[in-house]
């Protein structure tokens, strides 16, 4: 990280007092947060609560990447955006919301689609990456970029009435490609726009993503690495399962891999997954 | 052998939208144990009602499906060779990409 | 409920399209939500995300009870409030935030402390009650009022790095007093102001409260009744445990109980728990 | 008897802030089983380092403490009379009131 260390000023002691009182978090945890930088990719269903809680808790520098604009059909789940921002860039809307709840941290707006051409430059400015995107090629691209740059990746997903969460590339743990070396068939990659999603489900997963990012940034607790949380909203059941470790055959993260910055920049994620990195809003074909 | 099979992440749509299946799988004549390879073929025949290519590819699950035996990734227990025991819980879950 | 039925107007079809697409939710689930009324008691750490997601998802009438004002030391977790509202009533701030994300639902402000003298009148106006308070006497009082009125109660709590969640008085299931007939010693009833709380922990529990309230309102899924969710943020572990059913000896909900509206109004919750129902902000005694 | 004991909701503060305790509890001479009543007295003697009144009241747990044996409320298994078995997991958790 490129920051200088922040000591706790009196207004910060007051703002973060409930954190400072926690024996297992305390002054050191809060100072670590204030000195940390976190990037959230996607200011949608997962990104909304993740960004709000990361801003509120006092992450020193919080980046937001998104190329989309706020639409009315986002509002059922993307609670960071207000109706007044419909038609405006999500990054602008989300940044304004974060600033309104915490004017003392730095918010960085990256109003562009994340691509192999800009990902290295953007991600390299942050300590921790939160994947709050909604499609398979972005998930592979963000994973590979995190592996190449050596950044922990807090990965969440939600669809329908289910959610999933884990932390990749953390402290020798597996990366996304260790688990999913081959992309799924495109017919298995449904988007919220196609299949629907109950709004509060990405809300829960996004909050859990913020928690894991906070724990990594503050250096507290046991990180959800090598484990995956599976959430079923309809039955109110949650499993936390043990997943494989780093794969010696992983094309991205194995020790002897030839996959470096240049290979990353030349990799065609859309062709690999047979899915475009970003899609315009679909027309509704309903009722 | 009594097993609990669970399908999630959309895979339940392939078996009548039912997520939890309590099943009794017989060990085949001449075999002394039930492996995940046997179970996959049993599931393919007995539970998958449509689009089997969304569940399997070749003799294993399709890319993007996690298999968990008693809450543990089957990669850690020998994948297709994993031996199953009475009352084991096997979860098949498709990875999600939405947000 | 006293509402007339709402049919889905075109702007609602667009706004809630991701819900309508869900086979297990669909048009019926959304219409049920639009015809439901939910009261959230407490616009603090739990109430913040619960209110935002309940407003976003399209609950027809959403009530907020709180007597407090927004303070800077709330901001690390009470993400519904912006710095601009510091010093103003939480109800006013929360209502404005809910309206800004969904102008099409009815938001009702109850800017007062909930007491035995007003609880029956306020709670009776709603189908479902969400307990997002922060002290023991309020929890007993809200429970008893829900039992007397026959309302389901979605109860969440968070302190330090832990959270708890269950639904009381639902469909023959246990009430709070079935589990806790005798109040704990006051030394065991720590508040966030005394012991601290990691901001995102009530965030996660509050989202889960919104989910259970939505499931009850929409009549979908299995409700977390007779079960309790125990969340440990530091170790990223979640247990969902089976709890006792309704107690035949319960003073509040047993079939032959004499505890009715009049007994409720005369019950002294502060004396029962040896704790005041509401406390002013504590002075910080830190560092 | 090998047991896993877990303390939460603040009760861990009574035993060195350690939440999970893997313990070996001997069945007393003359007894043929270990009950929750025996375990409580063992915990009181061996694990609780301070403020025992925050853990017990009389011969049971204090009001506001939930006891779970293998993820199930001990009210459903006989409370103090619950018999424990090898590798059981017993959770003591204090109810929270904060928000
Ligand atoms: Zn890898
Ligand atoms: Zn009761």
UniProtKB/TrEMBL annotation, chains B, D:
Q: Post-translation: what modifications?
A: C-terminal thiocarboxylation occurs in 2 steps, it is first acyl-adenylated (-COAMP) via the hesA/moeB/thiF part of the MOCS3/UBA4 homolog, then thiocarboxylated (-COSH) via the rhodanese domain of the MOCS3/UBA4 homolog.
Provide this UniProt record's keywords sorted from A to Z.
Cytoplasm, Isopeptide bond, tRNA processing, Ubl conjugation pathway
| Pathway note | tRNA modification; 5-methoxycarbonylmethyl-2-thiouridine-tRNA biosynthesis
Q: Which InterPro entries match?
A: Beta-grasp_dom_sf, Mopterin_synth/thiamin_S_b, Urm1
Q: Does the keyword Zinc apply?
A: no
Q: Might you name a Gene Ontology BP term for this protein?
A: tRNA wobble uridine modification
**What cellular-component terms does GO give this entry?**
cytosol
Q: Does the keyword tRNA processing apply?
A: yes
1-thioglycine-modified residues are: 99
Question: Glycyl lysine isopeptide (Gly-Lys) (interchain with K-? in acceptor proteins) crosslink: positions?
Answer: 99
Per UniProt, subcellular location reads as:
Cytoplasm
**HAMAP family given in the database record:** Urm1
Its function, per the record, reads:
Acts as a sulfur carrier required for 2-thiolation of mcm(5)S(2)U at tRNA wobble positions of cytosolic tRNA(Lys), tRNA(Glu) and tRNA(Gln). Serves as sulfur donor in tRNA 2-thiolation reaction by being thiocarboxylated (-COSH) at its C-terminus by MOCS3. The sulfur is then transferred to tRNA to form 2-thiolation of mcm(5)S(2)U. Also acts as a ubiquitin-like protein (UBL) that is covalently conjugated via an isopeptide bond to lysine residues of target proteins.
The protein depicted here goes by the name: Ubiquitin-related modifier 1 homolog
């Amino acid at each position: 990280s490129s920051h200088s260390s922040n000591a706790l000023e009196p207004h910060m002691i007051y703002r973060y007092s409930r954190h400072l009182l926690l024996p297992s978090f305390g002054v050191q945890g809060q100072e670590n947060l204030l000195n940390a930088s976190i990037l959230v990719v996607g200011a949608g269903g997962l990104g909304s609560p993740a960004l709000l809680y990361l801003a509120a808790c006092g992450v020193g520098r919080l980046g937001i990447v998104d190329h989309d604009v706020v639409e009315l059909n986002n509002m059922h789940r993307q609670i960071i955006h207000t109706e007044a921002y419909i038609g405006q860039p999500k990054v602008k809307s989300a940044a304004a919301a974060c600033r309104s709840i915490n004017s003392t941290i730095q918010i960085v707006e990256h109003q562009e689609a994340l691509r192999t051409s800009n990902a290295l430059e953007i991600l390299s400015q942050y300590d921790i990456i939160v994947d709050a995107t909604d499609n398979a090629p972005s998930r592979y691209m963000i994973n590979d970029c995190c592996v190449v740059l050596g950044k922990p990746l807090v990965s969440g997903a939600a669809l329908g009435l289910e959610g999933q969460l884990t932390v990749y590339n953390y402290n020798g743990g597996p990366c996304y490609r260790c688990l999913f070396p081959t992309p799924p068939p495109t017919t298995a990659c449904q988007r919220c726009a196609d299949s629907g999603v109950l709004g509060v489900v990405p809300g829960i997963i996004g909050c859990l993503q913020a928690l894991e990012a906070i724990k990594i940034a503050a250096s507290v607790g046991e990180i959800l690495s090598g484990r995956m949380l599976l959430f079923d909203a309809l039955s109110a059941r949650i499993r936390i399962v043990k997943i494989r470790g780093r794969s010696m055959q992983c094309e991205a993260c194995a020790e002897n891999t030839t996959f470096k910055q240049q290979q990353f920049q030349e990799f065609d994620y859309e062709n690999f997954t047979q899915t475009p990195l970003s899609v315009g809003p679909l027309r509704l074909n309903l009722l | 052998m009594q097993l609990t099979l669970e399908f999630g992440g959309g895979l339940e749509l392939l078996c009548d939208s039912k997520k939890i299946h309590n099943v009794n799988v017989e060990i085949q004549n001449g075999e002394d144990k039930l492996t995940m390879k046997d179970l996959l073929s049993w599931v393919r025949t007995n539970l998958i009602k449509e689009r089997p290519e969304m569940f399997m590819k070749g003799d294993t699950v399709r890319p993007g499906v996690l298999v968990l035996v008693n809450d543990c990734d089957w990669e850690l227990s020998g994948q297709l060779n994993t031996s199953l025991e009475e009352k084991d819980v096997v979860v098949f879950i498709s990875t999600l990409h939405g947000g």
